[in-house]
Amino acid sequence: MAYLPASWPDVSEYEKTYPASLTNQDGTTVRVFSSVDQSTTDLHFHWMEQYGIDGAFVQRFFSGLRSPERRQKSRTVLANALKASQKYGRAISVMYDLSGLKNNGEDCSAIIQDWKELVDELKVTSQPTNTWQCLMKWMKAPLFSSVQTPRRRASNCATTRACRPITTCG
């Protein structure tokens, strides 16, 4: 017997939704939103403004940064967030999720490459501003964060050393 939830999140406010490979209990196709769609991100930032949320972290998963194609898709989501943050006067910051690091001592070169591309191509550190700084900053440097899962605790020291070139403020 397949698991069928009694309800899904309400997507009635979304301009665009997409069919999923799941069905509701009444047999209709489940519809979901996509963060790759600008209208989705725009709605999320509208809600942030409406409910007094000043900013958000845009998460970038390490496992999705290994190939140029996957970096591009993730970059589209960030570009949408930059555009919406300007429109609604919300701040954003990049958060790298390092849980995809392999246990074999993989370094952070994909993150370094990704950050360089974001600065050079997406111009994340030189976005126009309105009443809010579009990209959150700390001590005049772009703020970004990284997270790891507890199961990687044994390799954290090596990971921290490998990523130090991109996390040290000068």
- The CATH topology assignment is Rossmann fold
> Helix amount, in percent?
25-40%
The radius of gyration over CA amounts to 18 Å
Give me the oligomer status. single chain
What would your notes on this structure say?
The protein has 170 residues and is an alpha/beta fold. It has a single domain (18-158), classed as Rossmann fold, CATH 3.40.50. 34% of the residues lie in helices and 19% in strands. The chain has helices at 38-50, 68-88, 109-120, 156-167, and strands spanning 18-23, 29-32, 55-61, 91-97, 137-138, 141-142, 144-147. The strands form three sheets. It has a three-stranded parallel sheet, with helices on one face. Strands 1-2 form a two-stranded antiparallel ribbon. Helix 2 links the parallel strand 3 (55-61) and strand 4. The longest helix is centred in the middle third of the chain and has 21 residues, at 68-88. The termini are far apart.
Keywords:
170 residues; alpha/beta; Rossmann fold; three-stranded parallel beta sheet; two-stranded antiparallel sheet; 7 strands; globular; disordered C terminus
Short description:
With 170 residues, this protein is α/β, with parallel strands linked by helices.
List the helices and strands and how they pair.
Blueprint (H helix, E strand, L loop, with lengths): L17 E6 L5 E4 L5 H13 L4 E7 L6 H21 L2 E7 L11 H12 L16 E2 L2 E2 L1 E4 L8 H12 L3
Parallel strand pairs: 3-4, 4-7
Antiparallel strand pairs: 1-2, 5-6
Helix pairs in contact: 1-2
